Amino acid sequence: MKLHRVSLILAVLSFVFYYTFAYHLQRTDFIKLLTLFVALYFFCFKLIQFEKLNFRFLLGIGIIFRLIFLFTEPNLSQDFYRFIWDGHLVSNGANPYLNTPDQLMENMVSMIPNANILYEGMGSLSARHYSNYPPLNQLIFAIAAFVGGKSIFCSVLTLRAIIILADIGIFYFGRKLLKNLNRSPHLIFWYFLNPLIIVELTGNLHFEGVMLFFFILSMYLLSIDKWKIAGIVLACSISIKLVPLLFLPLFFKYLGWKKSFAFYAIIGITSIALFLPFYTPEFIDNYSKTLKLWFSNFEFNASIYNIVKKIAIHFDAKPWEFIKEYGKITPILSIATVGLFTFLPKKYDLNRVLWSMMWVLTIYYFISTTVHPWYVIFIVLLSVFTTYRYAIIWSAAIVLSYFTYSQADFKENLWLLTIEYISVYGFIIYEIIAHNNKK
Fold it and tell me: CA-to-CA distance for 272 and 277, rounded, in angstroms?
């Protein structure tokens, strides 16, 4: 396969920009960060456009771009400090759900190498809350802590290697699933070469990638009618991140009521088995408290919530009281959304299931109080299996939310968030109109 000279130049430039991102960027330098992202998105688009038939070249550069980050610590996220902290607890037989780091610093700190560094690195917000990472995620943290020992760098290296392997697995099974659904396998490169995916997963060690590996493997198994094994694998995905729980009702009409109940039973039994080693009476209380925080305490890069909050404050509502009330409504709206997408469509093949998942998750994040950049990665992957591309626009526009990291008080710029969401909503409206016109 002949390689375009321009593609080679774009690949080299991308390499240089990713290297700059990994080794010469402070997260407080928003202008530099934004410039790098804009350039990388342009290079990504052109590479996919020019090399439609050159599968090996695009796969190769996608892996190389990830390997660039192999020997550096994350520069846009400090979550990895908590990962390693929890990993040392699990590898030493301690339950990470029973005590906060603040509490452990007083007595059990001796079992954690580099405890002071990890404690300071994770920040006060993480240190005062119980762990919210599900059990299979904790197992991976334990492996990284065990392999790394007293070296934070070796633990980071282990975590990154696992995430890279998961991304390659997503690529492999994603292509196979696209073929089974009669779609172009080339579409998987919109995920695999997306700069946000490379930076946030490989660079910043977010475990959405491992969750998505199990998720996409489960969907592939469903496509070849191995639904029992798919249920076990989907439970593993949930045990990395809880997000796929939102989609469970969507399988009801696809599998039929007999298979779906068995499918749910398999997921439930597997999930219980994975949580069981960590079970104590305190675990349920501590874990539920942590989950509630996402609905009623935290806010970042919100869409509809920011608009409603502005209106509420105008009528003298107190922000700290308003978010708690809003947090009570969000789960109800989410359940209603899932119900609509479960029972309204008449035709329900696997294509329709993935399409419904994309819209359910999109609406959920539109009404959420917290939408970190790596959250939309799931929507990017789901969009690959549909004809909608607004998720790619969102993955680029959400870079504007990084401005908050450049501020000493982490104050958001609402004008930048407005630009982000106008571009996303605008493109969604355009795509919906275009699809309706085709019909």
Answer: 9
